[in-house]
Amino acid sequence: MGERALRLTLFLSLLFLSLVLLMADIKGDTIREKVPPIAWVTGKPSLLLGEATRKGWLELNHLLESIKVRLSSGEAIEKNLKLQAQLRQRIRTLERQLFTYQEAYLENKRLKALLHLKNLLKYRTVGAYPVGGVPLLWGRDMVINAGRDQGVRKGLAVLNSSGIVGVVIEASREKSTVMLITDPAFSIHVVDKRSRVIGVVKGTGGPFCNLQYVMADRDIIPGDLLVTSGMGGVYPKGYPVGTVAKVKREPGELFMKATVRPSVDFSRLGYLLVVLPEGGTKR
Amino acid sequence: MRWKKATLITALAIGSNVVQGILAPLWNYGQPYIDLPLLVTILYASRYPSAEALFMGWVTGAIQDLTPGGTLGVNAVPKLVVAYTVLTLEEKIEIQELWPVQMALLVFYATLSGTIGYLCATRLFQREVEGGLFSINFLFSLLINPLVYMVLFQLPLRKGKSAPLQKGE
Asked: Domain with A199 in it: what CATH number?
């Protein structure tokens, strides 16, 4: 048999065999089960290897995906940090603005109170604020930014919306020195707003003042508000000076001993008014 | 030398299917993108144009059919036909001396005929096959198989042509 005939015979035989197998497989014959070694050798390893490859491929995909996610999250972190820095800067700016607005609000409030006070007072006044020697706890004097040019002169009363602050003891062209009511040299004639008992409040050099020259049997109790009596014409009448903090009556003593807490908080002094004499400049 | 050929045929038939099984998940498991057993059949038939090539092609296709989900014969027949076609061509022309483009066309034709045979067999026996002759998978196979054949077999062999395989060895 020639090579060509051999090929043709083999071809036709295999073709026939294939068709038989095809028919048998289609009909549901268990040819695969009849040739388990072949199926095992070819099917299982390729299936297992295929599965392993598929898993490996999936793992690789997961890895690439996670790298992508990490890269993108890195970018996101960088963006967030940038945004955070911008927001911090913005917060600082807003805080500064808020501080400014708060200051303006408080100033406005103080000015309103002062304006109210100014309208209440029958006297001409000039506005000022402390520029030096500001007492934090208890000082004896301070400097304000109003002087002779504004009509301020020695002996004028200085007050704020809370009460009497002190008296001008020295005045230059643009500045003045004010003796506070806590100064031992300071004294002011007062009246108890409740009982109308009169007395003199005198500074001690400390945070409190003393009420002097009040008879021991007079009606003075802690909590009483002491206001200016208006005597002497320096201080406006009925203006708060302080509150009675403690009263002490000792047997045999003619006068009582009373401690007075000033109405003004000297650690929080803001705008002030200097009460001008009649005919002074109004500022 | 017969045992050597038998070993080679067995190794190629099983090896190509195993590699096919390994690589299959890379291009959607079960889809005939790159038909490595077909390429090996063409290679063997062109290098060793003898009756064994028919047997080799048939065995390779049969093994491919034995993998789970296959139908016996649907791959064996096309590969047998391809092997026979290559042998017939070999009688008329020197396949090994073909230009790469001609070789690519041969693989294209083989893939096409294999695909048609596969589709005929499955349709004839009412087995479900995804897509059809003009599905993207089969069209892609027509393009990718010649390319892979060129890259894997033709170009390396042409490069090392100083020591070519002996015909019929």
From this structure: 2.40.10.340
Q: Tell me, yes or no, whether A170 lies in a domain.
A: yes
Percent of chain B at pLDDT exceeding 70: 69
Find the chain A residues whose C-beta atoms sit closer than 8 A to any C-beta of B: 3-4, 6-7, 10-11, 14-15, 17-19, 21-22, 24-26, 31-32, 35, 38-39, 41-43, 45-47, 49-54, 57
In angstroms, what separates the C-alpha of B159 from chain A's closest C-alpha? 31
Distinct helix (H) and strand (E) counts, chain A: 4, 13
Q: Kindly list the residues from chain B whose CB atom is less than 8 angstroms away from the CB atom of residue A38.
A: 63, 66
Is A150 within the bounds of a domain?
yes
For B167, other C-beta atoms within 10 Å of its C-beta total 14
Q: Tell me the pLDDT tens digit for each residue of A165-216.
A: 999 999 998 899 999 998 889 999 999 999 999 999 999 888 899 999 999 9
CB contact under 8 A, B25 and A54: yes
ipTM of this complex prediction, to 2 decimal places: 0.76
In chain B, what are the domain boundaries? 2-15+33-159
The 3-state secondary structure of chain B reads: CHHHHHHHHHHHHHHHHHHHHHHHHHHCCCCCCCCHHHHHHHHHHHHCCCHHHHHHHHHHHHHHHHCCCCCCCCCHHHHHHHHHHHHHHHHHCCHHHCCHHHHHHHHHHHHHHHHHHHHHHHHHCCCCCCCCCCCHHHHHHHHHHHHHHHHHHHHHHHHCCCCCCCCCC
Q: Which of A19, A22, A61 to mutate to test the interface with B (most CBs of B within 10 A)?
A: A22
Domain count of the fold of chain A? 1
Q: Is B50 on the interface with A (CB under 8 A)?
A: yes
User: Domain range for residue A167?
Assistant: 125-275
Instruction: Check B73 against A50: CB less than 8 A apart.
Output: no
